[in-house]
């Protein structure tokens, strides 16, 4: 067991102990841990890439969001959103070709990530709020490129934005299909008691006015079927299980599912990068991708933490 896992398990033991005396406080403590990203770590090569950008920070709620731009200021916009624990350096292999094609590439740091100062707490709705604020500021976006957590939140964002602000083409890398999957994976990994899980769900309802089941990426994505979309997911992804891609694809009529084996959760291989850029710039469908032409039966959501083993999901917080 790694030091990180041992630390999480020690905290979980304390939360489970607290749950016998104060279940609500235990649930709030678990939710606080769940909603806290790992400390930002920007490698020198990533910072060198950030230093090539124009910086144009924008307000969103209580945060000033670091925004990075490359390419012509009046060019069509490619809006990029990365995953949990990443930073804008994640896009360094994508930007040069997009800029060469005449695009203005815009990327940003979510709260708790990169160079974003202030509270490090980040929820699904807060991330979606940041994304909506930035897309409104941009006056819309031409293309979307998003990964993992950032991509899942963007589905929510796009569904809430007016059609005129939505993109003409989307590429989503290794996104989840429902927020309950994240909660169930966290609970399973931590070994938290059922009462803590119930209190975490109660905390979500208190903060958002919505039940956990209502945060369903796949069913929301069905509203975006008019936008050509490429879903990219490695069937062997050890962070976000492939069942998420299959479920999103089953609900998202017209979407293409590209499944490069061995590319991992990061999906950072040269082959995948080239395929993604071909799709964004030219609308070229990767070889082997399959389309949902409307014949797929929509797959159900994960019901509880016990179902995670059945679905083959591995530790999200590993």
Automatic annotation (TrEMBL):
> Start and end of every AB hydrolase-1 domain?
78-267
List membrane-spanning regions. Answer: none
What's a Pfam family this protein contains?
A: Abhydrolase_6
Q: Which InterPro entries match?
A: AB_hydrolase_1 (IPR000073), AB_hydrolase_fold (IPR029058)
Name under which the protein is recorded: AB hydrolase-1 domain-containing protein
């Amino acid at each position: 067991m790694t030091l990180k896992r041992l630390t999480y398990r020690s905290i979980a033991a304390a939360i489970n102990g607290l749950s016998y005396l104060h279940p609500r406080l235990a649930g709030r403590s678990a939710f606080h841990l769940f909603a806290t990203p790992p400390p930002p770590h920007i490698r020198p090569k990533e910072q060198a890439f950030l230093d090539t950008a124009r910086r144009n920070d924008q307000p969103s709620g209580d945060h000033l969001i670091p925004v990075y731009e490359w390419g012509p200021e009046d060019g069509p916009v490619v809006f990029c959103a990365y995953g949990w624990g990443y930073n804008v350096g994640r896009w360094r292999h994508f930007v040069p070709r997009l800029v060469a094609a005449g695009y203005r590439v815009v990327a940003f740091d979510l709260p708790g990530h990169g160079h974003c100062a202030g509270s490090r707490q980040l929820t699904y709705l807060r991330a979606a709020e940041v994304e909506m604020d930035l897309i409104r500021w941009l006056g819309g976006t031409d293309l979307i490129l998003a990964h993992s957590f950032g991509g899942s939140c963007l589905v929510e964002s796009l569904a809430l934005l007016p059609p005129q602000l939505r993109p003409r083409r989307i590429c989503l890398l290794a996104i989840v299909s429902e927020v309950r999957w994240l909660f169930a994976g966290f609970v399973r990994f931590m070994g938290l008691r059922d009462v803590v899980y119930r209190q975490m769900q109660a905390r979500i309802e208190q903060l958002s006015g919505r039940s956990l089941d209502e945060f369903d990426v796949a069913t929301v994505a069905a509203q975006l079927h008019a936008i050509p979309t490429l879903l990219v997911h490695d069937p062997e992804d050890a962070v976000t299980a492939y069942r998420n891609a299959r479920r999103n694809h089953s609900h998202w009529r017209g979407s293409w599912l590209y499944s490069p084996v061995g590319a991992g959760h990061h999906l950072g291989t040269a082959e995948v990068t080239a395929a993604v850029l071909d799709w964004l710039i030219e609308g070229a469908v990767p070889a082997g991708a399959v389309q949902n032409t409307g014949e797929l039966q929509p797959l159900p959501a994960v019901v509880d933490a016990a179902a995670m083993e059945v679905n083959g999901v591995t530790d999200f917080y590993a």
